[in-house]
Design goal:
This protein is mainly α. The chain contains seven helices and no strands. It is elongated, with a radius of gyration of 18 Å.
């Protein structure tokens, strides 16, 4: 006889494992945004709307370096695109899940 609770647990485990693979790949991607230059910081600030730019200037470069959108900007500027990186790091199914579930932003 099929045990539905075991099947449900297996499905949940697969989801957890998939999420871990996606999170690990994303963490690896963002960790490559080391040592941003003042020039990169200034370029990023110029890309922001006025309100966000003012807030980030108040925070200063060291505090902004932890922001994911800053890291993403730097990596894209350095020609390291997240989409391509994730495609190379994840299986086809994991990559499709990442994109389909709005875990991908441009």
């Amino acid at each position: 006889m099929i045990n539905l609770s075991e099947i449900n647990m297996a499905i949940q485990d697969l989801d957890i494992e998939q999420n871990l693979r996606i999170c690990n790949a994303a963490q690896e991607y963002y960790s490559m945004a080391e040592s941003p230059s003042q020039y990169e910081y200034d370029m990023w600030l110029e890309s922001l709307d006025e309100s966000m730019k003012a807030d980030c200037k108040k925070l200063g470069k060291p505090m902004c370096e932890i922001k994911l959108n800053f890291k993403r900007f730097i990596l894209e500027l350095r020609d390291i695109g997240m989409d391509q990186f994730m495609m190379e790091k994840l299986s086809g199914a994991d990559y499709d899940f990442w994109k389909k579930n709005h875990l991908y932003e441009r």
